[in-house]
Amino acid sequence: MNLLLNGLLDGLNISLVAFAFGVVWAAIKTVNVVQAEVIPACGVALWVCRNDGMLTQYVVAILIAIALAVASFVIVRLVLRRAPDPRLMTLIVSIALTGMIGAVLQVITSSQTVSPPKVLPAGFINVAGVTLTWDYITAGLVSAGLMAVGYVVLRFSRAGLALRSTAHDSIIAAANGVDGRRVALFATVVGFALAGTAGIMQAGLTHGVDPFSGLDGALEGIVAMLIGGAGNPLGAVAGGLAVGFVDTAVTIYVGGTFASAIIFAALVVVILIRPAGIIGEW
Amino acid sequence: MEPSEYLAVTDVHAGYGVKRILRGVSLVAQRGQIVLILGPNGAGKSTLLKCLSGAHPVGAGDIRFEGASIRGRSSYRRARMGIAWAPEGRPVIPQLTVTENLNLATFATKARSSREATFRRYPQLRALAGRRAGTLSGGERQMVALARALEANAKLLLLDEPSLGLSPKVFQDTVRELAALREDGMTCVIVEQRTAFVVGLADRIYLLLDGQLHLSSAESIDTHEFFEGYTSVPELQEGQ
Predict the structure, then answer these.
(1) What domains can you pick out in chain B, each with its CATH number?
(2) Measured on CA atoms in the order A100, A106, A107, A109, is the torsion positive or negative?
(3) Among B55, B80, B100, whose Cβ lies nearest the Cβ of A171?
(4) What pTM value is reported for the model?
(5) A185 lies in which domain range?
(6) Under 8 Å between Cβ of B171 and B148
(7) Nearest chain B Cα to A170, which residue?
């Protein structure tokens, strides 16, 4: 039961990161690595605005996520005008931007791990003999709620239809009047805002933000996205929960050192057996 | 250009890398006409439709639609001007439901026709509305593509091998539907191999050989033997 509940809460947070990356992947079919840097950037924003009240901290953090989304989108687009391979160039340019954003975060934090104020409720509760902390419960519920809303938007809204049609066949979507650039911008803003929210919650759960974490902090989410099925919101949930359970189980029974290695091994096995992920395409 | 030239393609060149596929293609279509483009495999018929839809760039030449040049306009902008394109073998998005495929019409026009009107014209689609398009037969997929174009109030329909995967009976139904669309004023450019069904329907017939279009006529085409080693242009009939 301990494994089940802790794995579930851990997995929901990973799922949100996977979901956020999946939304962008669906539109551009690659990873905009800047999205990974959004996670510590939002944590650092909480710390910078630590004296300005909780609402201001949240708003500033999310605005920073959206600003990074728009800036990276525009810069990548400018480069792509002359680039022969959009996916590769998106990856390369976003890696370069990630280095620049990481450097800015290091300047702001003096390359130290900073501790933003508590953004999640404290305390604990006993559920079926298992002690759970309210910060993990809150983060899990927020993640689940955001993913549920995201799923409904993708499944039933006009913007969701534009994104899904572009994800499945961008040429046919465009031939029906769907503006691929607007879809990519929409997906990037939504994906970055979700990653920013995940960053706020990670800062609340770990009580510290490492300005060097960047891609490392998002890696579990990216792996979860690939395990579940890139671009599929249900795949993000499944992949996140799978990674969460494996992470928790390995940490409890084997030791935390091996968790990452086993998760990456699981990714290789899943890709060998089901290249499109456990759930596959949407 | 004469005012009646609804679609005018002038000296269009296009290709893939160094390979030149279209070398000075020109054609005209008037409003409400069905234009048929024939030619052997690899002649560039699909490339021509891609150029018309905006899915492939034009290297040189011009494409005018309703009097305005659309060369350089992106695919989605052409769709919003009323150009609908159903590529070979994938007229719909198979992962989406029939309803969702039809709803794509909302991106091409703000004044789409009603879903009820679609179901009156294609009653079979009502029962299929919730099904994934990937589970439909070839004829049903073609029907969804035509219905979507109608809902989007498309003015120019580009069909690439609409007979692909269809039984002769189902394709005859499609041909009848195309004739009805022409009566409604829709202009169609069709690339097709099964000439026996569509040659009689076409107002203009072009042969695409060696990267160039040649105006031809129904009488000059042996519909049963058309692709048996066709290498030259038969009985050109200018001014048809």
Answers:
(1) 1-72+187-240 (3.40.50.300)
(2) positive
(3) B55
(4) 0.87
(5) 2-115+127-273
(6) no
(7) B93
